Amino acid sequence: MSIRKILIDSGPFAIRLTWVILLCVPVVWLIMSASAKSAVLSSSGSVAAAAWIQAIGSILAIVGAGLFPYFHEAKKDRDRSDRLRRVMLLLANNQKEQLRLLHSTLFNAVEDFGENSINPYIANRWHMKWPAHMEALRSIPMGDLSPDEVYMLNEMKVGADFAWSVCSQLDGWDVIGDREREIIQQLKHASVMASLAVELLDRSGRSESI
Question: How far is it, in rounded angstroms, from Cα 93 to Cα 119?
Fold first, then answer.
């Protein structure tokens, strides 16, 4: 586990601890002051104790004020990373389903020559879902992702671009062509990669929530 992750994970606890300290020190100082006024402590002892409490409180307040922005920003970064992961998981699930649909459409076209497969696919405008999906993938800032997430995002972009290029060929699709059969196999591979991205992103989310 990296030092950065340890600091980020300890952020909420550190924030709560800081607030407890900031609340407790003034309370203790007030108790000491009240005790001094009621003559429970000697005059010189109460003044010295109050001075020490005030000094410690000031130091803790300065430390707390310095640490709070850091841990607050660390929590914001963690929340941002989690949102990006959930967006990528949503897009990976969508790509997995759209690739499955396109692959099954072209695979079944060999049997019906596209009448009950390619024609309905085009008529329902399923192929038009790819441009918006590709735009969503391009909008994800790679600088905010982990190395594994960058790899998965790139694989998803490649798969989506390939699927869109296949869709642009549907009007003249040769259901028994050798090239078309090879494309169907490549779509199968892209579908497997999308399924892998879903599995890894989902697993990453579960591990971070533990």
Answer: 25
Residues 86, 29: contact at Cβ < 8 Å?
A: no
Structure tokens at 127: 């192929």
Under CATH, to which class is 80-209 assigned? mainly alpha
pLDDT digits (tens, 9 = 90+) for 153-180: 999 999 999 999 999 999 989 988 999 9
Helix extents (H) in the chain: 3-9, 11-37, 43-112, 118-123, 129-138, 147-167, 178-209
Structure tokens at 98: 């759209």
Instruction: Enter the tokens of residue 139.
Output: 């909008």
Is 205 within 8 Å of 93 (Cβ atoms)?
Answer: no
Cβ contacts of residue 133 below 8 Å, gap of 6+? 91, 94, 95, 98, 160
